[in-house]
Design goal:
about 290 residues, 11 helices, about 10% strand, alpha/beta, DNA-binding
Length: about 290
DNA sequence: CCATGTCAAGGTCAC
DNA sequence: GTGACCTTGACATGG
């Protein structure tokens, strides 16, 4: 099992997701941001490997505005060396990588323009991973909207998926969300497409509520010989249901690990990031998971 | 220098 | 049909 956290490290004093306003766009701003982001990403991954955290989500802001028409920097070319360096470290330290384009990527939108922009955004994510030479990372997305007809929306998702470029397709994974598409829905899409399903245990508690063992078994089966990729969180007390915890809830986490089964990599979607990840790692080691 | 409003992109739900 | 909310840090501006 590998344990990790998404995008941001609060301890080492740099960020790999710096961006700027579209209004302030210039070639120089892009170069400055990308240079800073790649430099910091390398430092974070280095810190992670030294702390035995071997799962990390690279921020979609690593190259700001990459899929926007305004982009006019050939960043894959200009930062070739730095991108390769990251990939080298990832392979050397046996780390697993994911990326998670946000809510604007909707492969099943009714509007063709939205679908086109979504595909462009996915292409960008695949280009980052191509340039790093990381073939087996996941680009994780949700199924999308319902548009008043879930079956139709799922059909549209599948049809668009089939037309995606190969470098996107080989990395795309879908994740159950907390309101619209449950794990069962994602598994149904897997049946028709073979897309791997990332299991989010917190979302499953809010939507679907498939028993944990069954959920993990079924999601695992979608990954073939690769370990299941999982997102984990717990409810922040006193906040709207669905709010991610500020700190890891030790009791909840131990209970989860007691029930969990199989070979999986775990991403802690908890707000204090590497702090909780370090603690989770300690607990998992205590309980004999690694 | 600090406080506050704002940020590429969409969808859903309550009213 | 309109506005709040999702979710989040940090950019950017105005005082």
């Amino acid at each position: 099992m590998r344990i990790g956290y998404p995008c941001i490290n609060r301890r080492i004093g740099c960020t790999a997701n710096s961006t700027f306003r579209l209004n302030s766009y210039s070639k120089e701003r892009v170069r400055l941001a990308v240079s800073n982001n790649l430099d910091c990403l390398f430092k974070i991954l280095k810190w992670n490997s030294e702390n035995d955290l071997r799962f990390f989500r690279i921020s979609s802001d690593i190259v700001p505005f990459a899929s926007h028409p305004v982009m006019d920097v050939r960043w894959t070319h200009e930062f070739k060396k730095e991108l390769k360096l990251v990939g080298h470290l990832v392979r050397q330290e046996n780390m697993r990588i994911s990326m998670h384009p946000d809510q604007f990527v909707l492969l099943n939108a009714l509007d063709k323009g939205i679908v086109q922009r979504s595909i462009a955004e996915l292409r960008y994510h695949a280009e980052v991973l191509d340039a790093m030479g990381i073939e087996d990372a996941a680009i994780q997305i949700h199924v999308g909207g319902m548009y008043g007809n879930k079956a139709g929306a799922m059909d549209r998702f599948i049809n668009t998926y089939r037309r995606l470029p190969a470098n996107v397709k080989k990395r795309l994974a879908i994740e159950n969300d907390e309101r619209l598409y449950s794990l069962a829905d994602c598994l149904a899409i897997h049946e028709r497409t073979k897309i791997p399903v990332i299991f989010d245990s917190f979302h499953n508690e809010l939507n679907g509520r498939m028993p944990l063992k069954e959920a993990m078994n079924k999601a695992s089966a979608t990954w073939g010989r690769m370990p299941l990729m999982m997102d984990y969180s717990s409810q922040e007390k006193g906040k709207r249901p669905g709010t991610h915890a500020e700190h890891i809830d030790n009791g909840h986490f131990r209970k989860f690990l007691k029930e969990a089964k199989g070979d999986f990599d775990l991403m802690l979607e908890i707000k204090d990031k590497e702090k909780s990840a370090v603690q989770a790692l300690r607990i998992a080691k205590e309980m004999g998971w690694l």
